[in-house]
Amino acid sequence: MSNTGLEIFDTTLQETNRWLTLAMEYLETDNRHHAFMVLRATLHALRDHIGPERAVHLGAQLPMLLRGAYYEGWRLAGTPSHDRRAEDFLNHVDSGLRGKLPFDAEDAARATFRVFAQCLDGGEAKILISLLPAEIRVMWPNYFGEGQASVSI
C-alpha cells in the first residue's frame, strides 16, 4: 500500500528512514530530528570538503530527501574548502549541529560514516575515503590505513 500515492516518494521515504534508523542506532538515541541534524551537518562538511565533482557523485548516492538537505545552502564557489585538518572538518560539522544537540562533532561524523558504510555503494565509499585527510579517514568504521578500507554493504 502506498503512503503517498507516488512510488518515487514512497521509495525515498523508505530509504531515508533506513538512514535515519541507522543514525539513531549509532548515536544511541530515539530522536529522529537529532539523527537528521547529525546526518545533514556531516553531509554539508563533506560536500564542502571534497570538491564539486565528487560532491555531485556523493549526492547521487543519497536518498532524494537527504539529497535535498545535502544541497541546501551549497555555494559552489566556496568549494572545496582548503581545510585539511580534522579539527577544521569537525568545526564545520559542529557549526551544522548549532550547539543544540547532545552529540559532539566527532560522534556525529563517526555515526554518519557508519551509516555511509552501510548505505553507500562500496566503490563510492572507497573513493570518498580516499579524498579525506588521514586524520578524518580514521573516523571511518573499519579503516585500516592508506587505501585499505573495509566497507560493508
Shape: globular
- The overall average pLDDT, rounded, is 85
The CATH class designation of the domain at 7-72 and 83-114 is Mainly Alpha
Helix-strand category: mainly alpha
Beta-strand residue percentage? under 5%
* Helix count, DSSP H or I runs of 4 or more residues: 8
Helix content estimate: 55-70%
Q: What's the CATH topology name of the domain at 7-72 and 83-114?
A: Globin-like
Classified in CATH, the superfamily of the domain at 7-72 and 83-114 is Uncharacterized conserved protein DUF2267
| Secondary structure tally: strands | 0
- Unreliable segments (pLDDT under 50, ≥5 consecutive)? 144-153
Largest sheet: none
Which assembly state applies to the chains in this document? single chain
Strand/helix succession = HHHHHHHH
State the CATH architecture of the domain at 7-72 and 83-114.
Orthogonal Bundle
- End-to-end gap: 27 Å
What is the CA-atom radius of gyration, in angstroms?
Answer: 15 Å
